[in-house]
Amino acid sequence: MQRIPYTNTGKTGVYIGGTYIKPGETRPVDPTLIPAPPAEEETIVPVDLVAYLEKTSVAKVVESLKDRPAEEIDQLLEAERGRGDKARSTLIQALELERLDRLDQATEAERDRARAKEHLADMDEATLLANLSNVDHSETPREDLERILASYRLGAEVERENQNREAVIVAFEKAAQEAEAILAEGAKE
């Protein structure tokens, strides 16, 4: 069996085929036992994002975050960190905070879905239909109406996925349409 010299370039000692090699030391080892070097995870950041960061103020980048997909937030964060000494800590903090906010929102949406599922399972169809048909949102404040509209949509979605009571789904969709019409009417004014 032919042996080849192996130099440990790492910071800690390694064992190769029962031979301990200290950092910086070279020892003969069986070449079939040498581990493959770990693949470096290289994050590829689009050049246009790097250029964007170089020419855009922190305030403008932060202002644009709500309109960007999560993947792009991650790319912006990686690109800003990759700027080394030029990296702006305030932007890094803002990007990390945006990521956390989005995780919180996703978690809250999952909780809302679970609560809706539980609530709908506990209610009989007649009660649900009566509650949905006796609603007047004409005087409801806009911000409340947007939240109510989202709950109607969620109710229809959860009902469709679980009990699938067609009359309840139709009632949720009708209530959502009425809320949308009120919102659209308010937007025209």
Structure characterization notes:
The protein is mainly α. It folds into 3 domains: 4-33, no CATH class; 47-108, no CATH class; 123-188, no CATH class. The protein is 60% helix and 7% strand. The chain contains 7 helices and 4 strands. The protein has helices at residues 47-55, 58-64, 70-81, 89-122, 125-133, 142-161, 166-188, and strands at residues 4-7, 14-16, 19-21, 26-29. The protein has a two-stranded antiparallel ribbon. Helix 3 runs antiparallel to helix 4 (89-122), helix 5 runs parallel beside helix 7 and helix 6 packs antiparallel against helix 7. It is elongated, with a radius of gyration of 29 Å. The model has no long low-confidence stretch (mean pLDDT 83).
Short description, anyone?
The chain is mainly alpha-helical and 189 residues long. The mean pLDDT is 83.
Key traits:
7% strand; 60% helix; single chain; 7 helices; mainly alpha
* N- to C-terminal distance: 87 Å
Low-confidence stretches: none
Overall spatial form: elongated
Q: What is the strand content?
A: 5-15%
Alpha-beta content class: mainly alpha
Write the layout of secondary structure elements.
Layout lengths: L3 E4 L6 E3 L2 E3 L4 E4 L17 H9 L2 H7 L5 H12 L7 H34 L2 H9 L8 H20 L4 H23 L1
Antiparallel strand pairs: 1-4, 2-3
